[in-house]
Amino acid sequence: MPRPKMTRQAYEREMAAALDSALRDATAGHLTTRHVANSSAKHSLVDVVVELAAGDMPVEVAVEVIRFAYPRDVQRAVWKLDEYKRVSERPEDLMLFVAAESLSPGAKALLRRHGIGYFERNGNLFLRWRDWLINIERPNLPSIKTEALSLFTDSRERVIHALLIHRNEWITAAHLADITGTSPYTCSVVLQELERREWCESSTGAGRLRLRRLSAPRALLDAWAEHWTRRTHHRSRWYAFVEHGDQLLARLTDQIEKANLPLDWAFTGAAAANAYAPLLTGVDSAAMIVPPGSAETLAHAIGLRPADKGGNVTLVERDGASLLFRQPRSAYGACFASPFVLYLDLLDGRGRNKELAQHLLEKLEL
């Protein structure tokens, strides 16, 4: 039978007992605790109150219990603990603590700045109080990503793409919604999750008008790349006749303009990436992103022939974030996928794509 879900009260008691055991072990029994019932209005401000015996000197310990904590979660705990200290009759004999399953590095740093101790389920313990200093850091922390939101659904991926494009700018959820065609709610959810992961910083404002800026673009791009390389998209191989391989992009662009088809498209892959960040002496094939279900229509309209072998044009059927922020290239009069999509599409391991991807990444200066 599945294990019954633990109640909040039971979890608080369990974490308080684990903290008590950790303190006893860390101090060889010099510090012991006694649980105090939250009977007063003051005690109800925090989750757990225990009494700490340090020799003949009793100390009150106020504990906020959290499961998985990023700076945003810890900040709420800091406010509650500060309020508890404000109404305490003996603030000089009060110790403030956060107990959690797991704390992010940023959450720990925030607690240290506020002079608040912390304890994690795996035994990590930090305490600085009067003459006491305990700092136990154990390896292999449980990953707090188990509670993380999936960032790469179709609509959220559009927001991710926009944040990378505008990575050096302060931006609101309302503005993101305008430029991505998604809802303000979706944008807010993504921004909040990035802030929890410490990949985004916030400034003034509230709600949809709160200003935020991407602070860890490389980490975000790496996470997107990990997800991107696990996906599959419908690809078809075609052949276009050109006398010289370096004329392929120009020839395809000319044919598409003549066909005047009502659909979005963009060059991607090695040829497009090499045009954006030149490295290779030449690329004699092309890849194009087209909306799902439109590959055959486009191929027939511009005179491509099916090619199971020996093709020089690949049509990749995708929509969503792939066709956002297309870049015009004056040398060809064509649309290229954004540099971030170019980079992601080079991660397929073909030919010298890995080398070209690294070169493009250096140009992005993340």
Automatic annotation (TrEMBL):
InterPro entries named in the record: AbiEi_2, WH_DNA-bd_sf
Pfam families xref list: AbiEi_2
Protein name in the entry: Uncharacterized protein
Organism field: Pararobbsia silviterrae
UniProt lineage: Bacteria, Pseudomonadati, Pseudomonadota, Betaproteobacteria, Burkholderiales
